[in-house]
Amino acid sequence: MRMPWKLALMLWGVRPSTAYVDLMEDRLQIRYGPWRTATRLDNVARYDITGPYRWWAAIGPRRSVRNGDFSYGTSAHGGVCLTFHRAVRCWPVRPTQLTVTVDDLEGFAAALQAAGIPGADRRRSAARVPS
């Protein structure tokens, strides 16, 4: 979790011990403070690394007005947008896309690729991750 937002996120119950993504052999589990999202790994259709974001559009739990996706945001440096075959539960909605702002974007993307999930690096001015 990035430092400038730490105090604000703690008001939502989001701390390093309660904000993480677990990529397991057949399952993906995401925790963001009191909120949890889980799905089978075969429900993840693809990923895209995006960002960087403006801080006011990145921090906190939020739903996009443009396309209805959901985000669990802890930093503005970038995120990994997961696209699902079937909608997943993200309090209070069921989106088909969820962005998580993990600290190690490239490492998470590499783990997704190793699990057979295709994706791309779509950040502005960034080195590309092979698709």
User: Alpha-carbon distance between the termini?
Assistant: 27 Å
Could you give the order of the helices and strands?
HEEEEEEEEHE
How much beta, percentage-wise? 25-35%
Question: Strand pairing plus helix content: what structural class?
Answer: mainly beta
Q: What value does the average pLDDT take? A: 88
CATH structural fold name: PH-domain like
Strand neighbour order, sheet with most strands: 5-6-8-7-4-9
Sheet bearing the most strands, described? 6 strands, mixed
Helix proportion range: 10-25%
Name of the CATH architecture: Roll
Query: What is the β-strand count?
Result: 9
Task: Output the radius of gyration.
Answer: 14 Å
Shape: globular
Count of all domains: 1
Low-confidence stretches: none
**CATH C-level:** Mainly Beta
Helices, by number, come to: 2
What can you tell me about this protein's structure?
The protein has helices spanning 6-11, 105-114, and strands at 19-23, 27-32, 35-40, 44-50, 60-63, 70-73, 79-84, 97-100, 119-121. It is mainly beta. It has one domain: PH-domain like (Roll). The strands form two sheets. The protein has a six-stranded mixed β-sheet, covered by helices on one side. The chain has a three-stranded antiparallel β-sheet with strand order 1-2-3, with no helix packed on it. The protein is globular. The model has no long low-confidence stretch (mean pLDDT 88).
